Amino acid sequence: MIKPKRSSKKGKSTSAIIERCNSDRLSGLPQPIIHLILSFLPIKEAGFSNIRTLKLKGCIGDIKLLQDIASNSPFLETLEICDSVLPPFSTFGEFCRVKYLYLRNCKLPKTFIQSIATKSTLLEHLLIDGCYGFEHLEVCLPNLVVLHVTSKVTIHLMNTPRPEEITLSPYFSGLQYQTNYNWQLFKHDVFRGDVVRVKTLSLGSRVMLGLSSVGLFQFYNLSKLVVGVYPSGGMERNIVSKLLSRSPHLKILIIADDPIKYSYCYYESDSFWETEGPFDCLNDHLETIHISLPRIYPLDEASTRHFYDTDFVKFLLVNSLVLKKMKISVTPTKYMKEERKVIMRDLRQVEWASSQVELIIS
Fold first, then answer.
1. What is the DSSP string of 48-70?
2. Which segment of 195-199, 204-208, 299-303 scores lowest on mean pLDDT?
3. What is the mean pLDDT of the chain?
4. Which of 100, 199, 332, 336 suits a disulfide with 78, CB 3.0-4.6 Å?
């Protein structure tokens, strides 16, 4: 499905009218007739026609239709391709003016995606979500500002001097997939090159689990870091510590929700954080922290018993000299009020480095 950007100033679109009818009258038609119908639609309407028909989804991703859109839209700046299996053509040159490209749930031949990543010189925003057909991508785009990748692929940036926001958050399950992904991270050394210029970096839990064997340079421009795993286990703690030490100008730190269920095997009770630091970012820059605090369920106790690992939170409070706001989020329970008090009492056992910090537990 191809979705060029449409103006909101127009009246009701063709797709909106058909959707309102709440019926699919096209699935029974032969494919040549569907092609003919699309050819009569204005190019923006044809691209936006998720007319609730499965046949159209396969039709709209057709190579001929892509070429027709390219030839009739020389000034197209925003393009979205969804739910398509694209044939292995070798060039993306027809869409040379595209600045915003979104690829969702598509099978993409390596030649096609590599052509996008090296020849779309005006491209500023690239989103690759749930796509497959390739394992690694070399990105060489001089104007790229935002890169979001939630597919099981690794990315290496070269000759991309302007990255401001990068999100790497693939989702998959299974030890073999994780092992293969870790090997790709190590093989291509993805955290070298222009990625170190980024200002906002978001790393999902699967990426975090693969960073133990990957070298990291200094992220001098990084002001916001989002990680998808709370550092309770040894591997996660080492990686988070390494990221903090290599981000001297970090201002915002977010520890997001982790899809991995925590248990005793992800928690190690020792004095790791008591011996870490000091880091430059904690001394001079880190002002805002948001943390999703996980519950730890010991394997040798009843499943209803749990506790909170606050070692990392205490480390941040003790060492962040200019911290202004810390927000801690926990999963709601019927004992939420009591648990907040327990967490606050625990955190008050250490001396906070910043006298102006506002602590919120929600």
1. T---S-HHHHHHHT-HHHHHHHH
2. 299-303
3. 78
4. 100
- Residue identified by tokens 């979705």 is 3
Please tell me the distance from the alpha carbon of residue 312 to that of residue 237, in angstroms, as a whole number.
Answer: 9
**DSSP-assigned letters across all residues of 186-224:** HHHTTTSGGGGG-SEEEE-HHHHHTGGGS-----TT--E
pLDDT digits (tens, 9 = 90+) for 82-130: 877 776 654 555 667 788 988 888 888 887 788 888 878 889 999 999 8
Nearest-angstrom CA–CA distance, 182 and 170: 12
Work out the angle at residue 29's Cα, subtended by the Cα atoms of residues 27 and 34, and round it to the nearest 5 degrees.
90
pLDDT band for position 6 (cuts 50, 70, 90): very low
Number of residues in the chain:
362
- Answer for the pair 293, 330: CB distance below 8 angstroms, yes or no: yes
Tokens read off for 306:
């749990």
In whole angstroms, give the CA distance from residue 354 to residue 288: 12
Which residue(s) pair with 168 in the sheet? 149, 203
Residue among 334, 253, 339 nearest 288 (CA): 253
**Residue position matching structure tokens 């239709």:** 65
Report the interhelical angle of 31-40 vs 63-72 (nearest 10°): 10
Question: Using N-to-C axis directions, what is the helix angle for 311-319 and 336-347, rounded to 10°?
Answer: 50
The number of C-alpha atoms within 13 Å of 323 and in the hemisphere containing its C-beta is: 24
